[in-house]
Design brief:
It contains eight helices and no strands. It is mainly alpha-helical. About 3% of the residues have low confidence.
């Protein structure tokens, strides 16, 4: 399969952003979330994998129960993030088909839904994975005592994501496909957007 130079450049920039934002609280998911809305399923799954690997590597610089869990069971950092990409990208595609109209609300809603689904699934999958292993693989880590902190952080991440991710996603899409308004005009004319979620 031929991969365009633009796709390679976008992937490289997104990977760099992932590496920069991964250790920062509340905004670390932004590169993955805007990928899920602008680059299609294959690239989203790749970025989910990359995000998981980067999270695992950064865990060695941390001392929280989450960091310790990632080090002891790397698949907790990696597999949920691949699933997050699948759910967030899938939510975007489905909501794009279900939400009709060319109002600003209708156009922005899929991005908000995708960001919410991605952020919530990340929290649910990581927390549930840690709890499921709390009596076996992670028996020596204070997982249960940290649940409240993880859920609180997840709720803050949700609020930040649904505000920032749509704005970033739309800006990235405008840069990649020639403009958000162009898509709206194409929808008015009944013309499919051939650039949206283009294959990678």
């Amino acid at each position: 399969m031929k991969i365009s130079s633009k796709s390679i450049a976008v992937a490289a920039i997104t990977l760099a952003l992932t590496a920069v934002l991964a250790p920062l609280p509340f905004v670390f998911m932004l590169p993955l979330l805007f990928t899920c809305c602008t680059r299609g399923m294959k690239m989203s799954l790749f970025m989910g994998l990359a995000f998981g690997v980067v999270s695992f590597l950064y865990a060695f610089a941390g001392s929280t129960p989450v960091a310790l869990a990632f080090i002891k069971a790397p698949y907790i950092a990696i597999i949920p993030r691949i699933l997050v990409a699948f759910f967030a990208c899938g939510a975007f595609k489905i909501s794009k088909k279900l939400i009709k109209g060319n109002s600003k609300t209708a156009l922005v809603a899929p991005y908000v839904i995708s960001a919410a689904v991605g952020t919530l699934s990340n929290t649910v999958l990581v927390v549930s994975s840690m709890l499921a292993l709390s009596t076996t693989v992670l028996a020596d880590i204070s997982v249960w005592a940290y649940v409240t902190v993880m859920i609180t952080s997840g709720l803050i991440e949700l609020a930040v994501s649904v505000i920032l991710a749509p704005a970033v996603s739309i800006s990235v899409e405008k840069a990649l496909s020639g403009g958000f308004k162009k898509r709206a005009k194409a929808a008015d004319a009944g013309v499919g957007d051939k650039t949206e979620n283009s294959p990678n």
